[in-house]
Amino acid sequence: MTEPLDMSALLAVMDSQGQELERDPLFSGAEIEVLHGYLGGSSGDPEDLFGETLQGMSEAYRYGALWLVARAWPAQRACEFGDPLEDEEVRYLAGNVRVAGNLRLPDNAIVVVTGDLEITGNLVEDRAYYSMVGVGGRLSAKNVLVSGELLAREVVLSEDYITYGNDYSSRIGRLQARRYLSEEHFDHILAKEVEREVRGRPLPGAQELLPAKVLDYDSGESDPYPAWERLQRLLLGAA
C-alpha cells in the first residue's frame, strides 16, 4: 500500500507557493481555491487523489496537484517501477524512476512519478478510454504514443511524440523530439524543439514522416484506429 501524503504539509506548500502556481501557464483554466478545496478534503491516499478525487475536471487540476507534490517532496531517491501495469491501476511513485524497455499503459491506467521518469524504450498506450501519465520532473523515452493525458514539465524524446484522439490533452512545459505528430489532440505545450510538426486528421504527411510506421487512412475502413493499433504493435516490438 502506498504511504499516505501529509496533506497539512501539502496545503502549507500551496499557501506559500500558490501564487507561483497560479502564474504557471500549464495551470490555466483552473482555480487555486477549487484545488485547495479538493486537497483539503482528501484522505491523503495519492492513488485515490489522482485516480478519483481530481478526476472529472480539467487536467489543469491534476497538473496543479502534481506540481505541489513535486514541490513538497523533491525527488531524492531512485525507486523501482515494479510489475507491469494492470487495467484501471493507479500507481504513485515517489522518486526518480527508470524503466528498462517499453512502458505500456493498459486501459484506464494512471501513473504519477514525482521526479524524473526515464524509459529506455517507448511509452505506448493501449487504445483506451482514458490514461494519464504525470511526471513531476523530466520524462525521457524514444517514442511516445498516447491518446490520454500526459503532464510533465519536460519531455525529451530521441524520436517522435504522437498524440491521437480528441478527448484529452497533454500539458507540457518543454517538448524536445524529432517530430511532433498530433491528430486532433488538444495539446498545451509551452515550448517545442522539434524538426517537424504535423497536426490534423487524417494525419497529413504520415507516409512521408513515418515510412516505417504505416498510417493508412485510404484503406476504405470507416474507423481509422486500426492504423494506430498497427503503430502500437510496431513500437512494442510486436509488429
Helix-and-strand structural type: alpha/beta
Which percent range describes the beta-strand content? 25-35%
Outline, from the CA principal axes? globular
Order of helices and strands: HHHHEEEEEEEEEEEEEHH
Q: Tell me the total number of β-strands.
A: 13
Topology:
Layout: H1 7-23, H2 32-40, H3 46-53, H4 59-72, E1 78-79, E2 90-93, E3 96-99, E4 103-105, E5 110-113, E6 117-119, E7 123-125, E8 132-141, E9 144-146, E10 149-157, E11 160-164, E12 170-183, E13 188-199, H5 206-209, H6 225-235
Parallel strand pairs: 1-3, 2-5, 3-6, 4-7, 5-8, 6-8, 7-9, 8-10, 9-11, 10-12, 11-12, 12-13
Q: Can you describe what's shown?
A:
The chain is of the alpha/beta class and 239 residues long. Helix content is 26%, strand content 32%. It contains six helices and 13 strands. Strands 1, 2, 3, 4, 5, 6, 7, 8, 9, 10, 11, 12 and 13 form a 13-stranded parallel β-sheet that branches. Helix 1 packs antiparallel against helix 2 and helix 1 (7-23) crosses helix 4 (59-72).
